[in-house]
Amino acid sequence: MPKKVRFPHTYVIIFFIILVAAVLTWIIPGGEYIEQYHQADDGRQVLEMEYRPVESQPQTWEVFAALFKGFERQAGIIVFILMIGGAFWIMNNSKAIDVGIFSFLRFTGRLGKLSVMRKLGVNNIVMVLIMLMFSVFGAVFGMSEETIAFIIILVPLAISMGYDSITGVGLVYVSAALGFAGAILNPFTIGIAQEIANIPLFTGIEYRFFCWLVLNITGIAYILYWAGRVKRNPRISPVYEDDGYWREKRGGGNNAVQYHTPLSAWLTWVILLLVMAAFSWVYPCTPMKVGDYAPAYLMMVPAGTILFAVSSFFALRKSAHFFVLNILTFTIYFLIVGVMGYGWYIMEIATLFFAMGIASGMAMDYGANRITRLFLEGVKDILPAAVIVGLAGGIIVVLEDGKVISTILHSLSQGMKNANEVTSIGIMYMIQTVINVIIPSGSAKAAITMPIMAPFSDLIGLSRQATVMAFQFGDGFTNMITPTSGVLMGVLGVARIPFHKWVKWVTPLLIILLILGFLLLIPTVTMDLPGFELDIHLRD
Known about the structure:
This protein has helices at residues 10-27, 62-73, 75-93, 96-111, 115-120, 122-141, 147-160, 165-181, 187-196, 205-232, 244-249, 263-282, 300-318, 320-342, 346-363, 368-401, 405-413, 421-438, 442-460, 464-476, 486-495, 499-521, 523-526; strands spanning 31-39, 45-53, 286-288, 296-298. The protein has a domain at 257-384. The protein is globular. A two-stranded antiparallel ribbon has the order 1-2. Strands 3-4 form a two-stranded antiparallel sheet. It has 23 helices and 4 strands. 70% of the residues lie in helices and 4% in strands. Strand 1 (31-39) and strand 2 (45-53) form a beta hairpin. Helix 17 runs antiparallel to helix 18. It is mostly helical and 540 residues long.
């Protein structure tokens, strides 16, 4: 009987990639881009990036320091993961999420008795709504790191519905990535790229919306198809054995829950109401902003406080578990308010979930020592995911310290010379896709590539809007596979999906999306689309 091939651990794979990156620093000449500003005919200051060869910095022993430097580089995401893991471990110990999942399954079961819902498929409807929500978040405000927190909720839900952890990741991370790639108003990618390209912000939104629809129909159909196959035969999933962790975690079922509402839950409700009332006084109106449009001032914090007060009262009358679920619901509500209204990022979001974990423990009448112990157990449980993120960050450190990233970019950009319009936009798309594997940050990549690509598009007769679209697609799709992405590695680490199994599953979807992205780029250079005119970059 042939011996079963054992695939290397994710840590081994990433360290091997670091070694390959180090070898490249010995082969590829060093180079860097220098920012150059010059005055245009209309008096504007235009940024251009000038490439200059520099002495190479071959990496040797630095590969062993990559973990340390990677931890420094990805410190924010790492601490975010640890705090989220600790907070949710406290909540998980309360069995509140179990109660929520079983209540949800009972609700969908009742809906399934309706003939119309049976034909459409209740689970399919629920999954489509979840995926559309996260896709909108990705398209509007660039949800990325935030998806890590939702993995802890959606993966157990997917398992309980008879699917696998890959489906759970698809509901959250893949959906947000589809929205990110088909961004409509994302200020971190579209906003920065259009600003650098000197074209009116968020122009071309009509065609972008069409692309967003096409990408989501494709991606959602793929995930639903996979979920249906797993539902019929769970063992076809490559992570069936890995998902034993989640099945065991949910194994206690609903029968293990003792419904009760201790006095501490009512006290927690009062404390939270006082805190929310204070914030409502300080922040009576929130400037809810979408993209670069003028903000709409809404009473989001006071409204949330009133809704929390009323809904929590009824939840407490049922059980502290439902009160904890209500805390989770309004944590997500205030996360959206914070991100869209006050520009929150991972520090504020981690703090919000940390407070959620403590409040959940207090509501369940846990003492300070027990809350601390549970938090540390959660940190320990999720630590492998944090280590993966730090190690993945070391890949970029080696390439940057070796001075080869700019050389790779410069070499790729030379391939666009003497090409027709369709070929040129395709090469731009390919360049952005390849670079995204090396530089997963959309904002950083926009700052590096757009000062080169935008003027070049003028020389070859392409609209700068088409160039931004090539950047947008190139920046989005490969986020689902690049090992240099701290977010992806964090998601997989939290979901406990080995990297090689994820790559095997997502590759067919990625190929479909890459081909579709190229097809969607062709009309930007062959048709007269609103916002894609050649002179659109002449901004007032």
